[in-house]
User: Which sequence fits this backbone?
């Protein structure tokens, strides 16, 4: 399979525009675990919902990785969107 590499500069503000909803994450979400296509970990700090556009997901994942943050991506069958779980706290949350 062919692959391509390219460089894009993404700022914290750009990341905030790449997702449409964000919430603090944790064990309280365990009650709703069945709404996700895979079992999410409940040890992450934050959840970022993104429309089902795989390029958008890849950009978000790469942004987090470039900042040294691990992440887990699951599909939310209740919203029909991908959720990126991570310990990264976005600029919007950090300024609250």
Assistant:
């Amino acid at each position: 399979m062919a692959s391509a590499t390219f460089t894009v500069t993404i700022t914290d503000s750009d990341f905030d525009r790449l997702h449409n909803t964000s919430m603090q994450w944790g064990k309280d979400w365990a009650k709703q675990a069945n709404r996700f296509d895979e079992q999410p970990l409940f040890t992450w700090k934050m959840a970022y919902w993104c429309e089902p556009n795989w390029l958008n997901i890849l950009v978000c994942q790469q942004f987090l990785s470039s900042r040294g943050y691990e992440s887990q991506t699951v599909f939310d069958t209740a919203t029909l969107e991908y959720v990126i779980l991570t310990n990264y706290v976005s600029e919007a949350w950090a300024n609250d």
